[in-house]
Design a protein that fits this description.
Structural class: mainly beta
Radius of gyration: 24 Å
Distance between the termini: 36 Å
Oligomer: single chain
Number of strands: 21
């Protein structure tokens, strides 16, 4: 997205936000009994806990990486007994620390003359919709909204209706609502109480801004850029193309889901046509310049000038997702068991050839291949009463264990698929991840320690996120958190130079955050 478009969108958002707040404020005296307003003011700070290996000549350790102020306002106007209007507004402002200035000097968000603070300062109508029923069974929700399908907290299988903004705080933000990109959607629910179920269906007509589709990762070289790409704005050689025929943001997307009860079990079956959440690099068909055969993805690539960038373009192909979820309580285990499965038809993967661009830049500039994928999750949630005796908790500790697997169908090692563009780790037939959550409570719920652990059981590497949240008063919350990551396959910049840039490492998921440990704290005032 060019800088002029960013500025225009930002002005439009500010105008819409100001208008919404003004209208809400003007309505309050007349609608005092019918309007509910809540929200928060939050100050967040984070410091680098390690020296980044990809910022030569700069000592990152201990440097302030984020100083962000956020205001969130939720307005629920019950217009009549049956009609409600809901608005969710958010504005953020950040301090430009010396660390961010250094990333900007290195080239972060440099595409078309951008400013690094454009990545972090924002005003946005997160959601704005109207709810109303039609008869006893039928209800509608129209407007900008979020639809949540799925059972997982971290690596989603069916929760693909929307993309996520991982430039906000990567995947570490515990409230997915803050990361999920709302879309303009018409949603309809039909209840069938006779069979303990109901149908939910929606259509997104394609009226959203182009950047409101797909999961946005930090390819801009900013605070959440992945190792070793600090200060590198990849849009200089492969900008976004939201008009690509395989991922045109104007195309409608839609879905239908049945929710029901089978005995004591909740279950759902669903179908989605949606944008694949991960960004894909559509390689330029320009290898003839090197006297080599074409290895491009074949998507809108008919020559060296057919992609928006010299090396390609970033796209979000549309995919079909068939989903299933189920959860039930097990008396013998005294636990809740959940499962989620998604069959993703023609899921895109980057290819590993490697061609000359990949050898000169990084792995993944060799086109796209497609594979059907089964994404599977199983989870157990259990309260462990023994912690009251062992650790002095006031109530049983909440424990959650989740296992995830991405199973590539018709897998062939010779296909040489990558987990992501920019890193050399090749995808396995099964990619198994595990996460655990230990959640405790003390002092009548005012002090809540938590430990989140994650491990890549297929490729190695992991994360540990200990934190403690303190209720200082009825409205004031304080949180301190440490985010640690490790991976033995992280690449070395010294080895990744032409002609070896495509084959110098085996980085997979947790290698992306190698040397990116941080200390984080937040103070939140709820109103």
């Amino acid at each position: 997205m060019n800088n002029d478009l960013q500025s225009t969108r930002r002005r439009h958002r500010l105008h819409r936000l100001s208008l919404a707040i003004a209208l809400a404020g003007a309505s309050l005296p007349a609608l005092a009994g019918d309007v509910q307003i809540d929200g928060y003011l939050r100050e967040e700070l984070s410091w680098n806990a390690a020296d980044w290996a990809d910022t030569p000549g700069y000592d990152d350790q201990g440097k302030l990486s984020m100083a962000r102020t956020t205001a969130r306002v939720n307005i629920d106007w019950q217009m009549t007994d049956n009609v409600a209007l809901v608005a969710k507004l958010r504005a953020t402002r950040e301090y430009k620390s010396g660390f961010l200035e250094h990333l900007e000097d290195m080239g972060a968000n440099s595409y078309d003359g951008g400013d690094i603070m454009d990545l972090y300062n924002d005003e946005e109508i997160r959601e704005l919709y109207v709810d109303f029923p039609v008869g006893d069974r039928l209800s509608f929700r129209l407007g900008k909204q979020q639809i949540v399908w799925g059972e997982t907290d971290f690596f989603n299988a069916n929760d693909m209706v929307h993309g996520y903004d991982n430039t906000w705080r990567s995947f570490l933000e515990p409230a997915n609502e803050e990361l999920r990109k709302g879309n303009i959607i018409a949603k309809m629910n039909i209840d069938f109480p006779e069979v303990d179920g109901g149908v939910e269906m929606f259509i997104r007509p394609g009226w959203d801004d182009e950047s409101d589709i797909g999961t946005e990762v930090d390819i801009y070289g900013g605070r959440w850029s992945s190792m070793p790409y600090a200060g590198v704005d990849f849009r200089e050689i492969d900008p976004y193309n939201f008009d690509n025929s395989e991922g045109d943001y104007n195309k409608p997307t839609y879905g239908i889901r049945w929710n029901g009860m089978w005995g004591d079990a909740n279950y759902s079956v669903s179908y989605l046509k949606t944008f694949y959440t991960s960004p894909m690099l559509n390689a330029a068909n320009n290898l003839a310049l090197f006297g080599l055969p074409d290895v491009s993805s074949g998507i809108d690539t008919v020559g060296a000038d057919s992609t928006k960038g010299i090396a390609g373009e970033i796209i979000y192909p549309i995919v079909d997702v068939f989903g299933f979820t189920a959860s039930t309580y097990s008396e013998w285990a005294d636990a809740v068991f959940s499962t989620e499965m998604a069959y993703i038809k023609d899921a895109p993967y980057q290819r590993y050839i490697p061609g000359p661009i990949s050898q000169a830049v990084s792995p993944g500039f060799d086109g796209i291949d497609y594979k059907d994928v089964i994404a599977l999750m199983v989870r157990m949630d259990k309260n462990i009463a023994a912690t009251q005796r062992w650790l002095g908790t006031e109530k049983p500790m909440f424990f959650s264990l989740q296992l995830f697997d991405k199973w590539i169908q018709n897998y062939d090692e010779d296909d040489a698929l990558l987990y992501g563009v920019g890193w050399g780790g090749q995808a396995k037939e099964h990619s198994v991840l595990a996460t655990t959550i230990f959640d405790m409570s003390y002092n009548n719920g005012r002090v809540k320690p938590q430990l989140v652990l994650g491990a890549d059981l297929t490729n190695g590497g992991g994360m540990a996120i200990p934190s403690v949240s303190v209720e200082l008063s009825r409205n004031l919350r304080w949180k301190v958190e440490y985010d640690a990551f490790w991976d033995s396959g992280a690449r070395s910049n010294d080895a990744c130079v032409y002609p070896n840039a495509a084959s110098c490492d085996s980085t997979t998921l947790f290698g992306y955050l190698h040397n990116r440990d941080q200390l984080y704290t937040s103070l939140t005032y709820l109103f």
